Amino acid sequence: MKNVDSFAALSDEHFGDGVRAARFPRQISGDFEKVARNLLSQSKFSQSRDVHHYTADEVRHYAQDRLKPSLMNMFRVSAGERTALDIMVRDIDDLERHGYDYYLLRIVGESGYENKDITTFHCDGNPADPETHHRVILSCYHGPVTEFIDNADAIYMGNSLYRAKPGATIHRFNNGDIWTQSPANTARAEAFIHRGPPVNTLRMLLTAARPM
What pLDDT, in 10s, does the model give residues 12-38? Predict the structure, then answer.
């Protein structure tokens, strides 16, 4: 794991020479749980759905509605929610400025993922298909954060899935960190082996991508 000191440096980081992922560490404050619960309350889908998706335009529209000056917002929107929304909108602006034309905010419900492969160690992308090789940016605003292991501690089980060797150290990002990770094994870099953690509370994270 390589740490960098800015979003620009993270976006320009190259994989290879032992670098499988890079992280821009940051600490965030704000009531992101409130944002997640409010977005879910407005969803047209069942609350029991495992993952809810929101586009950049949907997040911006929600933020604009909650942040516009009004007597109603003065009473219904807390300072913590305002801080969280400011961060989320600023992240969208940064991503677009650096060429990320795909953005998705994901909220995972308290029952967790239905697709259990997500909570199994795995790598993303198909090494034989260049179309799956994208520069991906992620950040977890609220809830359990992505876990990863060293490649030497992984046992391959097929279909891009792995299990950790006994005694392997499981590393974790922190809420607020922004990171990028290599896709499936390529000629330039080893895959980044990671998993979505077991979820028993709301989890809200952004995913953005652009061609590598």
Answer: 888 878 888 999 999 999 999 999 999
Nearest residue to 113 (alpha-carbon basis) of 206, 197, 39: 197
What average pLDDT does the segment 28-53 reach? 81
Q: Is 17 exposed, middle or buried (0-12, 13-18, 19+ CB in 10 A)?
A: exposed
Residue 76: CB atoms within 10 A of its CB come to 11
Q: Of the candidates 62, 151, 148, 140, which has an alpha carbon nearest to the alpha carbon of residue 107?
A: 140
Judge whether 174 and 197 are in contact, CB under 8 Å.
no
Question: Of 48, 191, 45, 24, which is closest to residue 108 (Cα–Cα)?
Answer: 48
CB 62 within 8 A of CB 10: no
Mean pLDDT of 203-210: 92
pLDDT (tens digit, 9 = 90+) per residue, 79-115? 999 999 999 999 999 999 999 988 999 998 777 677 6
Q: Which long-range contacts (CB under 8 A, 24 or more apart) does 129-133 make?
A: 132/183, 132/184, 133/183, 133/186, 133/211, 133/212
Q: Which structure tokens are listed for 1? A: 């794991």
| Three-state DSSP state, 207 | strand
Cα-only R_g, the chain: 18
Spatial CA neighbour of 60 closest among 206, 209, 211: 206
User: What is the model's pTM?
Assistant: 0.87
